[in-house]
Amino acid sequence: MAKLSLGSTFSIFHSRHIRPPLAGCHVTKMTVADHHPSLEVVGGARDRFLPSLHTNLRLPYNPFPLIAWNRHVETIFASFLRSIPQVRLRRECLRVKDGGSVALDWVSGDHRRLPPDSPVLILLPGLTGGSQDSYVRHMLTKANGKGWRVVVFNSRGCGESSVTTPQFYSASFLGDTYEVVKHVGARYPEANLYAVGWSLGANILVRYLGQESHACPLSGAVSLCNPFNLVIADEDFHKGFNNVYDRALARALCKIFKKHALLFEDMGGEFNIPLAANAKSVRDFDEGLTRVSFGFKSVDDYYSNSSSCDSIKHVQRPLLCIQAENDPIAPSRAIPREDIEENLNCMLIVTPKGGHLGWVAGAEAPLGAPWTDPMVMDFLEYLERGASKTGKFSADSEAVQRSSGELHRIEV
């Protein structure tokens, strides 16, 4: 589906040298008692990663009173009323191989302030989301405050980035992700790279991890509110109150589309430009434009072949997945629990509540950072501490440099 963001869903309403991740780490055998029974904690890497998270996981998940009694209230509250940290960003416009453009937002001054081997964190927002969204800003400031170099990957048309070809991004398209990771890695070859994705950004990230498998240049990743199975997510998207999210996202997609409508005016074949331009649902937009752009026979074919649930078994880098049992957008029944439990690189945490990109709980609730943010940073810092200072993944650093050199950069 275009990009099931849905952290951004409600902002819509408002409208190299890369080291092995855990070389030399001592793994402590943990027991069920090391996490609170209010949380589901499973995965093939559970015992491997629990030492980094046990301080938080031993406490009960206590959703904030009044706000978290209903999943839709929590989701909307987090989108509308959660604080948005103020931070100065420096935008880099990246022209990729097919002529398309993405926008990379870096924290201003970090290229002078931070040493070249500071770990780099790439953030992938949800559908139509970008560096303006509160959940992105909180994660950005949390990581940056700990000395991490952070960059937000705004997909084509998102975060006020330009669309320069008659093609948006999609759940199926990994080309821009490949180029962004290579470009960032070439810019900071002494640093380890990590990534965090939300909603459809998480779906794209997990697909990338699975497709790259052993050759993945990332040292670790975190997936938050991942819909995992887009066919199931689409089914639930048309039920009850979820129709409100569907219409909101469709309006946001149409707004981006109309801003660049001239690029699409001569499209023929199976394209249905009027349907895309006036879409009443995400499915309408995907039928009129997305599935045709990326060569799928139908919307269901597109959703089925763009789901990250099939990628988990191929992930060969440390991956933490955090989901909410009552997420209205990323259904719990779509989580590939069996594959996560069998993969020695993956761990899953499921909270009883949280809504979609809500998680209004923890020390900073209700207006501050989501409950997940300290957990994400504990996990990433654990990986970074355990990374070897001399080793490399099998990715060819020179090839990364050459690939990145083919990109045209314009900084604004």
From TrEMBL:
Q: Which GO terms describe its molecular function?
A: monoacylglycerol lipase activity; short-chain carboxylesterase activity
**Where are the active-site residues found?**
199 (charge relay system), 327 (charge relay system), 356 (charge relay system)
List the transmembrane segments.
none
Q: Which domain of life is it from?
A: Eukaryota
InterPro entries reported in the protein's UniProt record = AB_hydrolase_1, AB_hydrolase_4_CS, AB_hydrolase_4_sf, AB_hydrolase_fold, ABHD4
Q: Which residues form the AB hydrolase-1 domain?
A: 119-357
Keyword annotations of the record: Hydrolase, Serine esterase
Q: Which Gene3D superfamilies match?
A: alpha/beta hydrolase (3.40.50.1820)
The record, for PROSITE patterns, names:
UPF0017 (PS01133)
Q: What's the family?
A: Belongs to the AB hydrolase superfamily. AB hydrolase 4 family.
The protein here is known as AB hydrolase-1 domain-containing protein
